[in-house]
Amino acid sequence: MEWTGEGLIIGVRRHGETSVIAEVMVEGRGRHLGLIRGGRSSKLSATLQPGNLVQLTWRARLEEHLGTFSIELIRGRAAGHIADRTKLYASQLLCDHLRLLPERDPHDRLLGLAVHALEGEKSRLELGATLASFELILLDELGFGLDLSSCAVTGVTQNLSHVSPKSGRAVCLAAAAPYLGRLLELPPFLIGKGDVAGPGDLAAAFALTGHFLDMHVWLPRQIDPPSTREPLIRIFSGESDPVDPSVGSPSPSRGGIPD
């Protein structure tokens, strides 16, 4: 068995004395693992950094085997990300999210959005909006998509402003008014209604996606949210400076908001 393609490195773990097992997102193939012999060498260590784009060939005797990767760097992003803490955290968050996906199950929409987020120069608001949209699509791809097409109470498709924390359905402003303290805010940019208005929109978006990721993914799997997520939210909301050393080493913490 053999195939060749481009992949996004999303994780690497040691295997034996000299080798590693790499996790790579590949178009049409999803999250794919493979053994890289000699992967712990100084020659390959720079290539095998999460966020890098690589050309790889996978070989195995049978389809169900782990198989081996031969790998060549196409675009190295890791060095640039180290110089920009916001990009570094964003790259780590995207890779952690992609590792939630089932193995060998194609998720090209998420892969394309992750590559888009990692490439080019983006403002803080643009990058935050891309990451929040990624989390919303991640929920959908994992089978927990929110219904944001119409109001759960009235059926209208205009002025959708909130989301039920239990059902994940949108609610229009008129129907939400008596229950604002119990509903999650729905920023317009998440449903294609304009651009991000400011840091408040991003905070509301991450509160929304974090609530449902906590409900459907982190809690059931008994895992913590990615350790870079909260520091990123603080940066996007303006509470922390991207170069503030106090956010240099985030510690794992449970995310989400109460029901």
Record keyword descriptors for this entry.
8 helices; three-stranded antiparallel sheet; 8 strands; alpha+beta; disordered C terminus; five-stranded antiparallel sheet
Report on this model:
34% of the residues lie in helices and 20% in strands. The chain has 8 helices and 8 strands. It has helices at residues 42-45, 78-82, 85-98, 108-118, 124-141, 173-176, 199-221, 229-237; strands spanning 2-15, 19-26, 30-36, 53-59, 68-75, 160-163, 170-172, 184-185. Strands 3-2-1-4-5 form a 5-stranded antiparallel sheet. β1 (2-15) and β2 (19-26) form a beta hairpin. α4 runs antiparallel to α5 (124-141) and α7 (199-221) packs antiparallel against α8. The longest helix has 23 residues, at 199-221. The N and C termini lie far apart (48 Å).
